[in-house]
Amino acid sequence: MEATDLTGTDLSHAAWKKSSRSGDSGGNCVEVASNLPGVVGVRDSKRPAVPALIFTPGAWSMFLGGVKGGDFDH
User: Polar residues bias located where (predicted)?
Assistant: First the structure.
């Protein structure tokens, strides 16, 4: 996969969503914004002011495939 420079990506219009499995009690959650053109944002729900991680849609899809395929299970 080709490297893409996402420095300076504008996330001001991101629609952040938590997993339905995170519940209402908080906990250790991440939020994902997939409504942005050409990028997917990921951030810590407890620390929204900390800069988000930014992925291309292809890289995000590969990551999710690895999660679903058990690549990160220990």
Answer: 1-10
Q: Which pTM value belongs to this model?
A: 0.77
**Closest listed residue to residue 11, CA positions, set 62, 61, 53:** 53
Measure the CA angle with vertex 58, ends 33 and 18; round to 5°. Answer: 25
| pLDDT per position as a tens digit, 9-37 | 888 899 999 877 776 666 678 899 999 99
- Is residue 59 a part of any domain in this protein? yes
Q: Nearest-CA neighbor of 44 among 70, 71, 19, 74?
A: 19
Q: Does 15 reside within a domain?
A: no
Query: 58 in helix, strand or coil?
Result: helix
